[in-house]
Amino acid sequence: MRFVVGLFCVLWLALVVRAQDSSATCRICQTHGSVVCGKHGRELAREQSPTVVHCSVAVECKVCAGALANDCKQCANPTVEQSLAQRQKLGKEWLAKRRQTIDALTAREPFHHLATPHFDLAFTLKPATVGKDKLDTHARLHLFGERLETLRATFLQVLEVPDADLPDRCTVVMNEEPKDHGILGPRLTGLGTANSVGLKLMGPEYVFSMWNDKRSLPDDEAVHRNLVHNVTHLLLSQMKPAMFLGNRSHGWIDEGVAHWFEDKLVGKCTNFCFEEVLMMPGAGFKGGQWRPAVRKLVDEGKAVTFAALSSRNTDQLTFVEHAFAFAYVDFLVTAKGGAKFRDLLRLVKSKTETRDALAKVYGNNPITIDGEFLPWVKANYALLPK
Ligand SMILES: [Zn+2]
Ligand SMILES: [Zn+2]
Ligand SMILES: [Zn+2]
Ligand SMILES: [Zn+2]
Which of 80, 101, 122 is the last residue of a domain? Predict the structure, then answer.
């Protein structure tokens, strides 16, 4: 009997100790099992943003190795410890792969790398003033990561495209130096020459590499516009059914859509996809303010007809035709709605002739559509920039 009572006491004691254990709060970690890494200071919120999957600067943190938190030495929590270790492992593997794919090709200081939910960004742009703030390279890396995700989200929203219709990740390499782009651009895209300003691969992998030519991209805003223009081409090409439209007489769509998102997100149109040789650095059309320029040409009876516009490839478009490509996309998206324009894109990407696609979606043809477009320009475009 004494033995039974003794055993009972031991069990009871064990239960009491356990209960005390679980109700006591660890004063160091508040019983979370981990403590926020103190090395990131005010940058912590940026690293924890939902647009960040991995950041090379965080992964290289000597204290947390990218987990952004450290194990609490005071209390044991195996689940938390495991998840910290898992996050560190994933970050380490990711960065090793990025260094191998990008950095190893150039003999330079390491790149900054960022993985967002849909983009892999490699980056060496120098610190720059953005608005009133001076941002260092790491801060700009995050800013461009957010800009890329914003562009993709806006593309989906405006054109009413489901997320599943943009299935592929895009690789974006933003180089400060021409020599890095000269190596990486051709290696990653399989295209172009070492002295290009930007190179794109538009399927089955989606890559954009550029360098910051100050003659055409003098400040952060210009770089942002350049990125929006070029990555729009990647999104438009990968949108299901995947196809590059620029060389199938659909240059007006290919360029018009890229210009339209440039204007929507960064205020004007300053980027053109010409053959490199034809484009002087910094060349442009009407300071990027195209609505008044189009209105003036329409008033003067010098409008480019849709029939002419829709027979050209991207690299055959003149400056004026670029502006009309933009205006036609503006007309169709703004006046007729993104969903219809998406339907037009799906049809021409399925190799439907422009004439048949216009009839199906808008009940128009390449001649009659001018009759709607020209009055719309007069009613909606002012002669002076806003
Ligand atoms: Zn603790
Ligand atoms: Zn970071
Ligand atoms: Zn850390
Ligand atoms: Zn373009």
Answer: 101
User: Does residue 93 carry a pLDDT above 90?
Assistant: yes
Burial state string for 294-308 with b = 16 or more CB within 10 A and e = fewer than 16: bbebbeeeebbebee
Going by pLDDT thresholds of 50, 70 and 90, the confidence category of residue 8 is very low
pLDDT at 6 over 60: no
**Half-sphere exposure of residue 54, counting CA atoms within 13 Å on the CB side?**
23
User: Ligand 1 center to residue 45 CA distance, Å?
Assistant: 22
The domain in which residue 224 lies consists of 111-242
Ligand closest to 31 (CA) is 1
147 and 232 inside one domain: yes
The CATH number for 189's domain is: 3.40.30
- Looking at the structure, tell me whether residues 296 and 378 fall in a common domain: yes
Q: Is the separation of the CB atoms in 356 and 364 below 8 Å? A: no
Domain end position, chosen among 78, 101, 124: 101
pLDDT (0 to 100) of residue 176: 96
State the Cα–Cα distance between residues 294 and 292, nearest whole angstrom.
5
Distance 66 CA to ligand 3 centre (A): 6
Structure tokens at 226: 């350049």
pTM of the model: 0.91
Domain count, the chain: 3
Phi and psi, residue 280, nearest 5°: -80, 140
How many beta carbons lie within 10 A of that of residue 128, not counting itself?
A: 18
User: Quick one: 131 and 210 in the same domain?
Assistant: yes
Angle of CA points 324, 263, 123, to nearest 5° = 125
Query: How many angstroms does the Cα of residue 173 sit away from the middle of ligand 3?
Result: 25
**Residue burial 248-271, b: 16+ Cβ < 10 Å; e: rest:** bbbbbbbbbbbbbbbbbbbebbbb
How many A from CA of 41 to the centre of ligand 3? 9
Residue 127 lies in a domain: yes
Looking at the structure, tell me whether residues 195 and 147 fall in a common domain. yes
Check pLDDT > 60 for residue 249.
yes
| Residue 334 in domain | yes
Cα of 176 to ligand 2 centre, how many Å? 18
